[in-house]
Records
---
Amino acid sequence: DFLFFWGAVFLVTTTLVALFKKENKELIPAKEETKGITDTYRLLFSIIKMPAVLTFCLLILTSKVGFSAADAVTGLKLVEEGVPKEHLALLAVPMVPLQIILPLVISKYTAGPQPLNTFYKAMPFRLLLGLEFAFLVWWAPKVKHEGGFPVYYYAVVVLSYALHQITLYSMYVAIMAFNAKVSDPLIGGTYMTLLNTVSNLGGNWPSTVALWLVDPLTVKECAGAQGHACGTAEAAEV
């Protein structure tokens, strides 16, 4: 029902835009961006070859490695420790207004000549919150009782997630502001898309690797089967 409702909203709004929104024909671009797919990829290749762009791409492709495990695995580990999935889902509700307000607040600090300063300042705090998330996972079985988890544990989780959202959005808005600032207006769409795609990749590949490494790096002990290791999934099943 949720997906059907928002699917209908998307269809209606995009149809209304197509019907009623007209292009401004008075404003003629100084130069046509591209003439086809081949030209677009040639243009992208020429952009990525620039030393400054290459350095920046390497930066944003590796900048999120430090907190990828905490971001990708914390929720799964909390569920593994017994925190109900529906409770974790409910904890996301207070984050919604925060997610709406944060970009508005942060954009004031990223609108200046050096938007990446916000990115650099937020990074150490986000790294520290990775340790905080590790503590939450370690703490979960300590405070668990027959009735579930105490209210103060959920309060700490909500506060931790709220602080995490502040650092996450500070970095996200800063990168978007920087990409918009450095993109050449003549090829703005292509330039922005390239930088934003690299930025998205920089967040996705470390999380994928972190999830893939969880099982091999998890230390397991076999209960009631002395002399047998549980290093592999097959051995653990036996």
Note: The longest helix spans residues 151-182.
---
Amino acid sequence: MPHINAAAALQICVLLSALPAQYFLSRWYGTDSVQRIQVTERLIITSWSSFKKSCLSLDAWADRLKLWLSKTRNWYDGEKTTKSGDNDAETHFHFAESTHVRSPKPEYIQFSVGQVIVHKRFGYSGVIVGWDVKANTPEGWLQHTYPPPKQDLRDTPHYRILINKANVFGKSTAYIPEEEITVIMGLEVVHHPDMKTYFSGYDGSKYIMQPWLKKIYPHD
């Protein structure tokens, strides 16, 4: 069987369509040859005009490009937002950094965001910037921090602390159980590069939360 390429197939299709086209023209536009020629010319002119507007017009291609860019940008923004949201949830889920609203506040949570604290064992001071009703960290961290004799601490309230830079403690933040901290009242003592991110000032008893933080801890 001879091989038929695309060009040959197109020629065959054009030839085969000639007879139905002629029948269509003669059936709907009369049998007079002059009429058929006129109708054919009109069809060709109309088709060519439509083809020029849709395929040979710079404006048409510019519109297509704008539409494609718009769809691409919308897809990219949506994808980026989704990935960003996933990354935020993944990054800020542990160590009292989750942004879910802590409401209502359980009665057994003794301390509040903005209060200045001192670590009972290590002696450093700091300010509370978040809390969890129980330790919310990777399992490996819990196993390393709380050996079997201290396993019960995993289920107690935990607080995220910005450590006072003046203590030269070696760490800038800490995540510690409630039983290891005590509150200092009426003394503005914390110096930390992230203070302004979390707080707008000091009211004499504790630091004042920024609006975004107050939304997360509305009862503190």
Note: The longest strand covers residues 125-132.
